[in-house]
TrEMBL record:
Molecular function terms from GO: mannitol 2-dehydrogenase (NADP+) activity; oxidoreductase activity, acting on NAD(P)H, oxygen as acceptor
Organism: Penicillium olsonii
Single GO biological process annotation from the record: mannitol metabolic process
UniProtKB keywords: NADP, Oxidoreductase
SUPFAM superfamilies reported in the protein's UniProt record: NAD(P)-binding Rossmann-fold domains
Pfam family, one: adh_short_C2
Residues passing through the membrane, by range: none
Family designation: Belongs to the short-chain dehydrogenases/reductases (SDR) family.
Name of the molecule in the record: Uncharacterized protein
Amino acid sequence: MSMSVNDCATIRDGFPRPFPDTPSNVLQQFQMKGKVVVITGAADGLGYAVAESMAEAGANVALWYNSNDVAIEKAKALADQHSIKTSAYKVDVSDSTQVSETVTRVVQDFGKIDVFVANAGMAISKPILEQTLDEYRKQMSVNVDGIVYCAKYAGEVFAKQGHGNLIITSSMSGHVVNVPVDQPVYNATKAYVTHFGKSLAREWREFARVNIVSPGFFDTKMGAGPDCLQEAYRMSSLGRQGHVKEIKGLYLYLASDASTYMTGSDVIIDGGYVLP
Ligand SMILES: NC(=O)c1ccc[n+]([C@@H]2O[C@H](COP(=O)([O-])OP(=O)(O)OC[C@H]3O[C@@H](n4cnc5c(N)ncnc54)[C@H](OP(=O)(O)O)[C@@H]3O)[C@@H](O)[C@H]2O)c1
């Protein structure tokens, strides 16, 4: 039953909550010095751009990789270049035990986790009638199970700390059925994690923020392949894919105190692909 104006005017205990004790200078809000950021899928592509962005803003960074051990060298280089602490961890995010154990190791090594960027993902882009069930299960295990495991174990740390910040890399494919390659399973995995993230924003409202980034085509290994490249250029209002450097500011914004009033948001960054 909806409430009357009088019912709604009732003063409720604990409201309004206080404003956060953060700097008013916007550049100071973007400072990440002393913060600890975990990034999955951090060896290359969007994940490494995010790692660079956090390091450039002064954060200590834990780079998680699966098969691409260039992450180890990149972690060392970031530490030397920015005088921060970094470490690389080999983790298959579709393995809950590995995720749980590595979250524990990061807390042992760094003392806390301020921000967790659940970014790892993969696609086997095929119509469902051509897709094997193993291919379906593989995408579910990385894109859905992997995000759920990372959120669950990072969330336990956030709850214990009393603060935290989860950022999920979803996709514009969770919003639209992008063309011309049919990939219903990948699209659905991204729709899942977008809604999962919004739901966590409410569940964790007392101690952590949760936001979602939904990229369009970016020029990485997972970006537009030969079958959809020309259509990616035509569909994007800006007529091109994104460069990874163009996503760094958005993740930094969401990770930092510049976005303290933002939770449960899903930010599309796609050069205008989903507009038509
Ligand atoms: N590029 C785009 O156009 C685009 C658009 C929308 C959304 N996205 C999303 O952006 C995210 C990053 O993709 P990207 O474009 O940067 O492509 P990418 O360079 O291929 O990155 C994908 C990352 O996921 C990691 N990964 C895959 N399976 C994993 C597993 N089982 N356990 C742990 N890590 C695993 C890979 O790690 P290793 O290399 O170490 O194996 C890799 O670093 C993905 O979630 C993707 O769905 C990308």
